[in-house]
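sorry for the late reply, my laptop died twice this morning and i had to redo everyting from scratch. anyway the thing you sent over, i finally got around to it. pasting the sequence first so we're on the same page, its 87 residues, then the predicted structure underneath. double check i copied it right bc i was rushing
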Amino acid sequence: MNGWGWFAASLTMLIVSALIVAVTVLVVRAVQRDGTDGRRVAVPDARRAPAAEGLLAERFARGEIDDDEYERRLAVLRRHVHGPALS
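ok and here's the structure:
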C-alpha cells in the first residue's frame, strides 16, 4: 500500500469506530427511556429517602415549614419511595 492506502485505511477505521460509539450511546439512551412518550423512567431510590427526609426535618427545625406541612410532605416522600398505597 502506498501513502494514500494507509490514509484511507486509517480514516475508515476512525469512521467505523465513531459509528460504533454513536450506536452504543443511542442504544443505551433508548433502553433508559420509557417507550410511551420518550421521557426517562423515574425509579424511586430507597437510598435517597433518608436524605430527603433529613432535608425536610432541617426545614422544619429552622421554622421554614409548619408541622402540618412537614407531616404532609413526609407522607408524600414515604409514599413515593415505598410505592402508592393499595386502596
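The radius of gyration is 25 Å.
thats about all i looked at so far, will dig more tmrw
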